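haha ok so turns out i had the wrong file open the whole time. this is the CORRECT one, sorry everyone. sequence first:
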Amino acid sequence: MANITNTTTTNTTQSDLATEQAIYNIEYNLAHVSSGLSVLGAIANMGLLYVIFRRRHLLRDSIGRTITILSSFSALFSIFMVAMNELWVAHHKATVAQTVGPLDSVPVANSIATLSYLFLTGIFSTNLLLALERYWRIRHNCMLPNRYVACVVVGAAFYAVFFIASFSLPGVQCRWTFLPFAKPCKKVNGWSCRTKYTDTSTILYLLGLSGFVLSTIVVGVVYENSYFHIATLSEQQFDTEHQSERKKADETTHLQRAVLVRCLLMSIGLVIFYFPSLMMVILTIFKPTLFDDLSNLQWAWLISFMSVIPALDPLWTPVLVLICQEDFREAVWKEIWPSRKREPADVK
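then structure:
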């Protein structure tokens, strides 16, 4: 009987070890996938920035300057994502091997966590600025006034302070559940790390996240107003009696609608690539037992997949810039194939 029990225990232990190793492999492999996508995003954004600084005329327009800032944040965030993914993998392997990992230093880990949110704050605020630039161009046919630009910059700095303060409080550590989104936590019983929504660090952290939600809502409202303004112009053109005026109004409305569609495509990445992971982080703060029904393997797939999605945004940005901005596309084409002359494409 003792031999049967020992055999069963050995088989169970081997099965548990195999499952554990499978979980680790999923997490490591998808972290490397995220790094690979981030490398592609960094190359694409740096290539676009190279073209912009070679073709300085792209910076004459305020929208062109905003796109340049957005591409710069995307390039930096891509490089940061590669470093963070690989650091996390190395740290996790060290933890399993019961050795010191690169993220065991609390100041280093907290600084990395803070930096990730500073980059994200830049990306969200630049998308908001781009939406306002587009709206002002459609509505008033001129550049966005500097006072609105200053408001966006001050607002971004205001919410960035919450993240800095959240990870700077005494006794606070960071915990990565969904890369690259760390959340503040405090040690309990000397080893486990707990995130409680009533803690000061967590409240500050949630206030910082509210800036992402608010900026996305404002972007949606701005585009809604842009849409209704274009719809009004479309109705007015049918009231025009002269054929020439009607044709001119139709061309203007067609162009403005194309601009709006392009800008919507550029900003929809905020919702697709960041909000699923952000919502998961928030849910695990308010309801830590939400995913308790999942097996360890299912949980590994969930957190690994959620960690890959944000790496797609830096790749999405330059691709859409080339699709939606004809002047940027022509500049890139001339850098790649300078001897070939191309006719400008019609706006569709």
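The chain is about 75% helix and 5% strand.
again sry for the mixup
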